[in-house]
Design goal:
single chain, 174 residues
């Protein structure tokens, strides 16, 4: 298979012994896809297109995967490269590119937001353009207070909620 096709593995169903509720007992893994050595930090289905999945993590790339029903394969459709940043932390400088949060726009199947361990930057992408994000929002940081985004929720087409490592949350209106 080409590198655009992800290796998938069928899984066996596992029964939950001693389970108090039926919800866990009915979960049945169907397939697993592998990204090589990348640590996956976040995965999300596209709410407007259930054949698309975004996965992102340690390599700074948000990968758009499409499930092809006819062949029952996961195919890599596009890769969105987060920008590399030099960030001061503690006693030195390091390069940061990990993505630790992604969220699809619930009202537009083409838009998603992503952020990572890169000094408080949030990027909004259109899946039809994998070269450049539509926009980037950066929160001010200092050498002692780095605004790291830990969570993004795209609540509506014009509202995002962003959670930070310092205990703050911000509502963004577009």
């Amino acid at each position: 298979p080409s590198e655009r096709h992800l290796k998938s593995t069928a899984l066996r169903s596992v029964s939950a012994k001693g389970s108090s509720g039926p919800a866990l007992a009915t979960l049945r893994p169907s397939q697993t896809f592998h990204f090589g050595d990348e640590v996956i930090r976040c995965v999300q289905w596209n709410p407007a297109n259930h054949s698309q999945i975004l996965a992102a993590g340690s390599n700074g790339i948000a990968t758009l995967i499409t499930f092809m029903e006819k062949t029952e394969e996961f195919v890599v459709q596009s890769r969105y490269h987060s920008t590399f940043d030099f960030v001061f932390r503690g006693s030195g400088l390091y390069i940061s590119c990990e993505i630790n949060s992604i969220s699809w726009c619930p009202d537009d199947r083409y838009f998603f937001a992503e952020s990572g361990i890169d000094g408080g930057k949030l990027r909004i992408w259109d899946v039809r353009n994998e070269r450049n994000p539509l926009c980037e929002v950066r929160w001010p940081s200092s050498s002692t207070n780095i605004k790291q985004i830990n969570s993004i929720i795209w609540a509506s087409k014009r509202t995002l909620i962003v959670g930070f490592s310092d205990g703050e949350a911000t509502i963004l209106k577009t």
